[in-house]
Amino acid sequence: MPANLKFLAFLLGVQLFGHAMADESIPVYFEERPPYASTGTDGSVQGLTATPTEKAFTKAGIAFHWKEMPFKRQMAEFAQNDKKACGIGWFKKPEREAFARYTLPVYQDAPTVVVSHSDLFKDKPFQSLPELFADSRYKLLVKDGFSYGKYFDGLIDSLSPAMKSTSTGSHEDMLRMVSSKRADYFLEGKEEATYNIQQLGDGASNLKLTSFDDFPAGNKRYIACSHQVSQQTIDRLNSALTSVPVAKTDSPELKISFGVHNAEPYAFINKGKLEAGIIKDISEALSQKLGIKVSYINVPRKRLEAYLKSGKTHIVFMSNPACVKNADDFYWSIPLFQQSDIFVVDSQRAFPINKFSDLYGKRLGTISGYHYENLDQDLQDGKIIRDDVSDLATNFKKLQSGRIDSLVDANILVDYYLKKHSAKHKFIVTEKAASINDNYAMFTRKPLPIDYERINAELLQLKESGKIDEIIARYR
What we know:
It contains 16 helices and 24 strands. It has helices spanning 3-23, 50-60, 71-80, 94-97, 129-133, 150-159, 171-179, 190-200, 231-241, 278-290, 304-310, 376-381, 392-401, 411-420, 452-464, 467-473; strands spanning 26-30, 38-39, 45-46, 64-68, 86-90, 100-108, 112-117, 140-143, 163-166, 185-189, 207-210, 220-226, 247-248, 253-258, 268-270, 273-276, 293-298, 315-319, 331-332, 337-346, 363-367, 385-389, 406-410, 427-443. Strand 2 (38-39) and strand 3 (45-46) form a beta hairpin. The N and C termini lie far apart (104 Å).
């Protein structure tokens, strides 16, 4: 064959080889592990680590295909280094870097949490993870071959807590073991713990998540590849990842309920949004203490409990367990402040109210759906005529026009209304109170972004420092 033909054949061979190499699809291994990676009904793989990985490969122009494989097998295959392959969601550890090339991070976890049975540590509230590790009564449940990140792996290695290992159990299985008290506690990323608890539904109602103050920021997760994958390919992925922002879990956020049933000054609502008031002031003070964002969800009064039970909201202020039918379905704060249900009469048609029987045969302005502890029987028997409206302002209008004989409502609300409308001379607040009650915050039993006990402790500090009383005094 002439030399020039041999050269052309060589160039053609190189070109064909290059195309074959370019078209070679790299298997990307994943574990079926929502919310990090899960297979959709259309065969696509999506999730907190899968989605940014797919974007990076696509943007870099690197052919790939998904392949499900347990993590321990992934590590074993990379160590053999006999094929090109990558895996997603890996933590970076020195011993793994000996047989794997890492890209830039694709995701950063929320801080790790301790998953335990809700009543496990009641006899001894622990202040730190090392303190918990030191108590040999409780065994840490671990999954063979898993890393919990540099900080937690280091603590486990140095403190050697009592442990119980599982080799085949899924994270959902581990939750069931803790829920049934076949295991004591384990460590897990908050996203995964929250997701799996939601999937278990009622079977997870006795679980709780705890985070200690000394826990570090969440671990970063990477794409890791065998050494058969060239550094040039890793560089192309990194270049793509620089334009795909590292996904992070949303900043933790407490969701506070409010609604039109919260009269001023509890809530000042404009176009359905909470703009000011006691609920917002206490929530903002709590936010500063906890270092966490708060958001406000407008919820009809009849749906408050349903929203809490489902975890759609986290806290309802201005509540009392005595007024909630299934109070044990929720956590409760310490008493935040006292309020009295008081009677008001029109100054032009005043009559003494020294005892409840003074209201017999009278029409009493009340709020629809509200429970009046000491009056309920007389109201049910019809001795006192209950006249329901939706808000205090309507009751004051009816009282002034003579359509009711008296009204009953919380002293904080009454005081604010009279002050706002300069109406103290038009009405008389009687000395007799219908009741004196403590006011509480009601919490969901679903996972909270910050441990319930810590929130309660900060509320106690706000109360004891006089901050809550100071907030209420602004509106009186």
